[in-house]
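Researcher: Next sequence.
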Amino acid sequence: MRAWTSGATRVALTVGSISALAMAVFVANAGAGVVPTLDAPLTVVKTVSGPVPAATTFTAQIHCDNDIIDTDDGNTDTATVTFDSSGQPTSPDTVGFDDPGSCTVTETASGGAASTTYACESSVIDDSESAFPSAVTPDSPVCVAAGPSATPLTVNIVDPDQSATITIANTFTAVTPPPVVQPAAAVAAAPAFTG
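Model: Next structure:
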C-alpha cells in the first residue's frame, strides 16, 4: 500500500510539474508579442520628416466597403491606427480580413504636417486555390496605385495569402519667424528759415 501511495504521489507531482511548466510557457508566449496569423494582413506605416513638435500625434483610418475587418469582437468596416510624434504606432497597426472587398487608408489627423503622401506595396503568394471563396474579381491588383500620391490609396482584399503595406509620409517645415522690424530713427525737425 505504501509503494502505491509513493507512486501516486510521484505521478501527481509529475503531472503538476508538467502543468506548471506548460502554463509558464503559455504565459511567457502571451506576453512576448506572439502575433496571431492574420488573413490578408494590411499594415499602416508612418514616416515623418522635418521638425515635428514633440506632442504631435497622428491618426489613420482604414475604411472598407463592407464589414470584412476581422477583430476579436466580430467584423467591422473601420479600424483606426494611431502614431506618436516619431511615427511609432501607439495602437495595433495591422488588420486582417475574413472576406474580400476594398479598403481605403486615410490620415484623419496629420499633426499639422505641411504635406502628406501615401504609398502602397503588396505581395501575393501565387496560389489560385487560396482566394477568398466569395471573391468576385480574384485578379484585381492588391494596390490600386503604388504612389506616392497626395490622395488616400485603396487596397483590394482578394486573397488570404496577400499582404499590403500603406506608408503615410508626413513632411513638416520649420516655422520661419516674422522679420524683426527695427524702429525708425527719430528725425529732428530742421528749423524753418524765413526771410
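Model: Helices lie at 2-31. The chain has a mean pLDDT of 79.
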